[in-house]
Automatic annotation (TrEMBL):
<feature type="domain" description="Peptidase M20 dimerisation">
    <location>
        <begin position="210"/>
        <end position="311"/>
    </location>
</feature>
<dbReference type="InterPro" id="IPR036264">
    <property type="entry name" value="Bact_exopeptidase_dim_dom"/>
</dbReference>
<dbReference type="InterPro" id="IPR002933">
    <property type="entry name" value="Peptidase_M20"/>
</dbReference>
<dbReference type="InterPro" id="IPR011650">
    <property type="entry name" value="Peptidase_M20_dimer"/>
</dbReference>
<dbReference type="Pfam" id="PF01546">
    <property type="entry name" value="Peptidase_M20"/>
</dbReference>
<keyword id="KW-0862">Zinc</keyword>
<keyword id="KW-0378">Hydrolase</keyword>
<dbReference type="GO" id="GO:0016787">
    <property type="term" value="F:hydrolase activity"/>
</dbReference>
<protein>
    <submittedName>
        <fullName>Peptidase M20</fullName>
    </submittedName>
</protein>
<keyword id="KW-0479">Metal-binding</keyword>
<comment type="similarity">
    <text>Belongs to the peptidase M20A family.</text>
</comment>
<dbReference type="InterPro" id="IPR050072">
    <property type="entry name" value="Peptidase_M20A"/>
</dbReference>
<dbReference type="InterPro" id="IPR001261">
    <property type="entry name" value="ArgE/DapE_CS"/>
</dbReference>
<dbReference type="GO" id="GO:0046872">
    <property type="term" value="F:metal ion binding"/>
</dbReference>
<dbReference type="Pfam" id="PF07687">
    <property type="entry name" value="M20_dimer"/>
</dbReference>
């Protein structure tokens, strides 16, 4: 005979919505406030790294520090924080939960303490509140809920809180790949703020199933010096760099049915400076966001074509920004809408909000590119929304932080229980 009461108990324990509802709203937001009040610009994450480690350790979740080192370009030394829930079936998938701990540098235009964590009208204010301490709080709470639940997960859940996402190279996520931490993972959830940086207008609940990639042209323009009173006797590298910058914005960029169009944005012209001298050389940095199919060779060839058509008097050398290794680049990726991870998160959204999620794609780049492109993992971004990210007045919607924690929890149960 089947024990009906036992079946009911088991059903309740493995119900995604029932477990998600056990996440406490106020405790989640209190955690978020604590995170926001810790100053943690990239390359200066020691305090928040220790906080996340201690928070997990106090709950018996066996965290470990994972060393991050990049001595050649940045000289950075730091730590990610990792923790793992072990599943019962070695053949079941392993799910990566990821968030970054760092923020951009504190913006001077704030009219209040940028680390206040002030709450007003359902918004929590502070540098990094939306990008992405809201998402970090979400996976911390979700991971704790899964660990505390009376439920057997078939597959592992790997928690990763990483450093330097806002820095130049995403060194924390890069180290996960370098050290083969992601090798046994089968899918990834990243809780970056989603709708605010989507390719089209979206509202939560939303699942972002891919992102454009990025190259950074690092171009040297070399002219010929002359006295500034007789510019016709020289070749002005700054002028030619300006012409090249303008021409590069006219590149016929790639397009993708899901990711949209690529883009080109000149960032900096650096050179000259001598009194009364025609600038002999300068450096031009140009951002190039790309879609699937736009490879390094394609991107280089596009720039070479522009240079050839301009016929500049200056010599031009096209290269890309120096990186710790040749593969440390943000490649574009798309996750199949029918992937089991997407189905599980749809279930999670339905269980938590009663809605079907909007589906979108990210306009910029982040650690998710490393997981989705370099590591080849089905990767979904699900995060809280807000405004003014990277700027003064940044805030995150508190209810959406709690929803994300619950959706991630429910999605994990739907995929792994």
């Amino acid at each position: 005979m089947t024990d009906g009461s036992a079946d009911t108990s088991n059903s309740e324990r493995t119900d995604p919505g029932a477990l998600a509802e056990r996440i406490d709203h106020d405790e989640t937001i209190e955690l978020l406030q604590e995170l926001v009040r810790i100053r943690s610009p990239y390359f200066e994450e020691e305090a928040i790294t220790e906080f996340v480690y201690d928070w997990l350790d106090a709950r018996g979740l066996d965290p470990e520090y994972h060393a991050v080192s990049e001595p050649e370009i940045t000289g950075f030394e730091g730590n990610n924080v990792l923790a793992r829930l072990e599943g019962t079936d070695p053949d079941a998938p392993t799910l990566l939960l990821n968030a970054h701990m760092d923020t951009v540098e504190l913006v001077e235009a704030w009219e209040e303490d940028p680390l206040s964590g002030r709450i007003e009208d359902g918004k929590l204010y502070g540098q990094g509140a939306c990008d992405m301490k809201g998402g970090l709080a979400g996976i911390m709470v979700a991971f704790e809920a899964l660990a505390a639940a009376d439920i057997d997960l078939a597959g592992d859940v790997l928690f990763t809180a990483v450093v330097d996402e806002e820095g130049p190279y995403g060194l924390g996520a890069n180290q996960l790949i370098r050290d083969s931490v992601t090798d046994d993972c089968d899918a990834a959830i990243v809780t970056e703020p989603g709708p605010i940086l989507a390719q089209r207008d979206l509202e939560n609940p939303a699942l972002l199933l891919g992102a454009r990639g990025r190259f950074l042209y690092d171009i040297t323009v070399t002219g010929e010096a002359a006295h500034g009173s007789q510019p016709e006797k020289g070749t002005n590298a700054v002028v030619d760099a300006g012409r090249l910058a303008a021409a590069l914005t006219e590149i016929d960029v790639g397009t993708h049915e899901l990711l949209g169009d690529g883009s080109v944005c000149p960032l900096k012209i650096e050179g000259g400076g001598e009194t009364l001298s025609v600038p002999e050389a300068c450096r031009l940095l140009v951002d190039r966001h790309v879609v699937v199919g736009e490879t390094e060779d394609v991107v280089r060839a596009d720039a070479e074509t522009v240079v050839a058509e301009l016929g500049l008097d200056s010599a031009v050398e096209i290269d890309f920004r120096e990186a710790p290794a040749p593969d440390v680049r943000y490649g574009p990726y798309v996750t199949d809408a029918d992937d089991p991870l997407v189905d599980a998160l749809r279930t999670g959204v339905g269980a938590v909000t009663g809605d079907d999620p909007a589906i979108g794609y990210f306009s910029s780049v982040g650690d998710f590119n490393y997981f989705g492109h370099r590591a080849g993992l089905p990767t979904v971004i699900v995060g809280p929304d807000g405004e003014n990210i990277h700027g003064a007045g940044e805030f995150v919607y508190t209810d959406e932080v709690v929803d994300v924690a619950r959706i991630v929890t429910a999605g994990c149960v739907a995929l792994l229980a």
